[in-house]
Amino acid sequence: MSATANIGVVGLAVMGSNLARNLASREGNRVAVYNRSPERTRELVAEHPEAGFVRSESVKDFAASLSKPRTAIIMVKAGAPTDAVIDQLVEVFEPGDIIVDGGNALFTDTIRRERAVRATGINFVGAGISGGEEGALHGPSIMPGGSVEAWQTLGPILKSIAAVAEGEPCVTHVGTDGAGHFVKMIHNGIEYADMQLIAEAYDLIRQGTGKSPAEIAEIFAEWNKGELESYLIEITAEVLRQVDAATGKPLVDVILDQAGAKGTGAWTVQTALDLGVPVSGIAEAVFARSLSSKPEQRAAASGLPGPGATLVADPDSFIEDVRLALFASKIIAYSQGFDEIVAGASEYGWEIDKGEIAKIWRGGCIIRAQFLNRITEAFAADPGLVVLVTAPYFRGIFERAQDSWRRVVAHAASNGIPSPAFSSSLSYYDGLRAKRLPAALVQGQRDFFGAHTYRRIDREGVFHTLWSEGRREVQVDSN
Ligand code: 6PG
After folding, report:
1. pTM value?
2. 131 Cα nearest atom in ligand 1
3. Which residue among 141, 190, 191 has the greatest number of ligand 1 atoms within 8 angstroms of its CB, and so is best to mutate?
4. CA dihedral angle for residue 356, residue 360, residue 362, residue 367, rounded to 10 degrees
5. What is the C-alpha to C-alpha distance for residues 378 and 389, in angstroms, rounded to an integer?
6. Are 411 and 208 in contact (CB under 8 A)?
7. pLDDT digits (tens, 9 = 90+) for 41-87
8. Residue 167 and residue 172: Cα distance in Å, rounded?
9. Which pLDDT band, with edges at 50, 70 and 90, does 479 fall under?
10. How far is CA 400 from the centre of its chain?
11. Would 376 disulfide with which of 69, 178, 281, 355, CB 3.0-4.6 Å?
């Protein structure tokens, strides 16, 4: 076997084979392919003669087919299968070679793997790849971590296959070790929030105006021409337009209303809890899927008291309110996601350029949206921006949207329409901008039952009230 390929792909299920075909279609690439079951490899090679794949049926041959530094992208199931392939490649690769994990790995696994593989002199790169099957084939958004050295070899290859947004490839070296998979995890958390918000918008419009899914599809298609333009809005229109061939009903009405999840949204929230970052919009989206998937509890609770939804008096202005509420809530979700990136970067020692992340999310990925340019601009204009929502452009949106947002959340509450993501986003917004929060009372309670102490607004130091000894305040720090 001669070393003719400059890049290899291990794992040839849909994502892997599409990525391999994408690589093969770009000038200068020769792609080696390997799969655990050789039948799949033979099938892919036979189906795509135009790709000129270099086929191997053993890991050893696969390694021999790659020029140095050998570079291979693993596209197998996250978890144990990934570890198994890494172990095999480490056996046959040499120092300076590069192993890329392109799956949806948990970033802490990537940190562990990077450390273990680095000890052999081989580079390990965890790369988040977003865009689903189509993205893998035509141009995904790619979020690689790993060393700068690995990026030097890998960068041009990844740039050749990434989506292009406004002339720029949607890939950047995110940071070292697990930074790429961390940012992909946040991408997915935002994806969950965005999808839930869109679903709530649809439900509010349907229940508030009585419009059919096909009519609501037209509303989303219209929204997609303006500031809400995004892939998720676009596909929402497609899904709502779809008619079920078997029943003639809107497809959305025959799909079981229980949303699944593979876990990346939950990781985003679990990590946020550890980092102490309030990603309430993302958390509500994850919980909304959990609630939907509890049929027994839902059946048992279906007779509980609550109002039925009434139709609004002015559908057009209500729809516009929902549009603005969606935009405002969406900004909250992105802002919370970026907060988690900042906290993760500080915890794990990554230098992550937030503006660059917004840029590489403009194309290829599931959350691609027009307004990501505004995020890049906000971070560029003020690199020290404390919280995204305060950037002038976003402030302007809140000025325009907040009355609508409040009307929509009030309508949802008074009509018994669940809107966890809309409502929690608005509460987060109000919490963040509040001059004074009832957290002061929580501190008082903590001090009362556990002597957990508090600080005062008017004096330095740490204080405790002797609640059962005359309620006299004492200063408990040494200041
Ligand atoms: C992407 C998607 C992709 C996948 C998610 C969805 O960026 O291409 O995020 O990674 O579709 O894992 O996961 P759920 O099954 O959890 O919704």
Report:
1. 0.96
2. 8
3. 191
4. -110
5. 10
6. yes
7. 999 999 999 999 999 999 999 999 999 999 999 999 999 999 999 99
8. 14
9. low
10. 27
11. 355
Nearest CA to ligand 1 atom 7: 130
Q: DSSP assignment, residue 307?
A: P
Q: What CA–CA distance (Å, rounded) separates 60 from 42? A: 17
- Both tokens of 262, joined, read 């593979």
- 354 in catalytic set: no
DSSP code, position 388: G
**CA–CA separation, 147 and 173 (whole Å):** 9
In this structure, the number of other CB atoms found within 10 A of the CB of residue 104 comes to 21
DSSP assignment of 411-428:
HHHHHT---HHHHHHHHH
Token output for 233: 């809005």
- CB-based contact 241:217 (threshold 8 Å): yes
Q: pLDDT at residue 408 above 90?
A: yes
Where does ligand 1 bind, in terms of residues with CB under 6 Å?
104, 130-132, 188, 191, 260-262, 264-265, 365-366
| The pLDDT value given to residue 2 | 85
The per-residue pLDDT of the chain, averaged, comes to: 97
Q: How far is CA 414 from CA 83, 306, 308, 409, in A?
A: 51, 9, 9, 9
Evaluate whether 140 touches 161 at the Cβ level (below 8 Å): yes
Taking the C-alpha atoms of 76, 28, 123 and 181 in order, what is their torsion angle to the nearest 10 degrees?
Answer: -50
Answer yes or no: is pLDDT of 350 > 60. Answer: yes
Q: Which of 114, 191, 284, 340 is catalytic?
A: 191
User: Phi and psi dihedrals of 125, rounded to 5?
Assistant: -125, 120
Q: Is the pLDDT of residue 383 over 90?
A: no
Token pair of 20 as six digits? 């391999």
Q: What is the DSSP letter of 454?
A: B
Span 142-200, pLDDT tens digits: 999 999 999 999 999 999 999 999 999 999 999 999 999 999 999 999 999 999 999 99
